[in-house]
């Protein structure tokens, strides 16, 4: 409180000094104008002589200590001074702040830090996948695995009592048979399934023979041209069965770049459960060729399909009359 009172007293003295310093020249000029006026006619009593002015010292100074008791000035006159110097004592600034006890700076534990804001777990995944092309997108421009028939036959015969269509592989073994009474249908479709429940191997050359017998007992045989089975898809209750020739992978730049495997993975992701086991069967003329083909297809499918890598099984089969480059069958398991 003494310090505040001293500051107030000092500011009041400074205002008085400045007021007096500004009023002194005006008073002297007014006195000079009065002295220049003529004296009035009636004589007046002689004025007492003015006191002689004392010469000012070269550098006079006066210290006003506001902190002392009893420093009171009734009247203050400043003459011959052209500067005023005031010194104020500044209190020492002491900061006594403990960050551990300051409000709003409590450290807390890890649970408190996590509760301050809810972590966004999806933002990093979205940022990481924004520039990455997903292999699970549908690719409608890929149509290598056609469903339905792998071969269509159109017998042009009339007035027959019974007929029979036989499809054989390159070894001459019968893989499919169709027969009936009366005129045959205009078109007979083969879906690629063999008599033993397997699938026709793409890349092999197949042949067919059509037999027709009329009402007189005459029998005629029609031998058709050989044909190859392309890649195809057979839909089953467990999921799609995909069959394709192995040489297509080499023609498309290998298993890592072949669009054929992209389409195969697309059908597997759409038609089979992510936890369902898959079997990749590669058939080739040599054991090392079949093993390498099965491993290449299985490894590529593991990166393109949903689910664990361990659900994909690989099987290598050696068949002397296998197509050149081998063949691959991908099927779901129970």
A few lines on this structure:
The chain is α+β, with helices and mostly antiparallel strands and 334 residues long. The chain has 6 helices and 13 strands. Among the domains are: 81 residues, Immunoglobulin-like; 101 residues, 2-Layer Sandwich (60s Ribosomal Protein L30, Chain: A), CATH 3.30.1330.
Written account of the structure:
The protein has about 325 residues and is an alpha+beta fold. Among the domains are: about 150-230, Immunoglobulin-like; about 230-330, 2-Layer Sandwich (60s Ribosomal Protein L30, Chain: A), CATH 3.30.1330.60. It is about 25% helix and about 20% strand. It has 6 helices and 13 strands. The chain has helices spanning about 1-35, 110-115, 120-130, 245-250, 260-270, 285-305; strands at about 145, 150-155, 160-170, 175-180, 190, 205-215, 220-225, 225-230, 230-235, 240-245, 280-285, 310-320, 325-330. Strands 1-9-10-13-11-12 form a 6-stranded mixed β-sheet. Strands 3, 4, 6, 7 and 8 form a 5-stranded antiparallel β-sheet that branches. A two-stranded antiparallel sheet has the order 2-5. Helix 5 crosses helix 6 (about 285-305).
């Amino acid at each position: 409180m003494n310090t505040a009172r001293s500051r107030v007293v000092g500011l009041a003295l400074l205002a008085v000094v400045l007021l007096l310093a500004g009023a002194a020249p005006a008073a002297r000029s007014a006195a000079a104008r009065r002295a220049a006026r003529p004296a009035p006619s009636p004589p007046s009593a002689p004025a007492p002589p003015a006191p002689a002015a004392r010469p000012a010292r070269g550098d006079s100074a006066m210290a006003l200590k506001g902190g002392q008791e009893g420093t009171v000035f009734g009247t203050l006159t400043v003459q011959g001074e052209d500067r005023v110097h005031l010194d104020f004592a500044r209190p020492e600034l002491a900061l006594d702040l403990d960050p551990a006890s300051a409000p709003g700076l409590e450290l807390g534990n890890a649970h408190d830090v996590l509760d301050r804001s809810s972590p966004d777990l999806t933002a990093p995944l979205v940022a990481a996948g924004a520039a990455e092309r997903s292999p699970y997108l549908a690719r409608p421009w890929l149509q290598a695995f056609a469903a339905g028939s792998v071969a269509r036959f159109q017998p042009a015969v009339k007035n027959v009592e019974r007929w029979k269509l036989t499809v054989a592989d390159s070894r001459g073994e019968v893989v499919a048979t169709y027969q009936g009474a009366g005129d045959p249908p205009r078109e007979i479709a083969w879906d690629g399934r063999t008599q033993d429940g397997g699938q026709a191997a793409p890349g092999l050359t197949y042949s067919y023979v059509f037999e027709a017998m009329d009402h007189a007992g005459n029998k005629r045989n029609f031998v058709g041209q050989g044909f190859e089975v392309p890649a195809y898809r057979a839909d089953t209750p467990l999921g799609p069965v995909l069959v394709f020739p192995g040489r297509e992978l080499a023609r498309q730049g290998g298993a890592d770049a072949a669009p054929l495997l992209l389409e195969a993975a697309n059908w597997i992701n759409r038609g089979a459960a992510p936890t369902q086991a898959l079997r990749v069967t590669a058939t080739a003329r040599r054991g090392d060729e079949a093993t390498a083909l099965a491993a290449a297809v299985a490894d590529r499918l593991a990166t393109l399909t949903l689910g664990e890598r361990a659900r994909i099984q690989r099987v290598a089969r050696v068949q002397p009359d296998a197509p050149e480059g081998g063949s691959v069958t991908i099927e779901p398991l129970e």
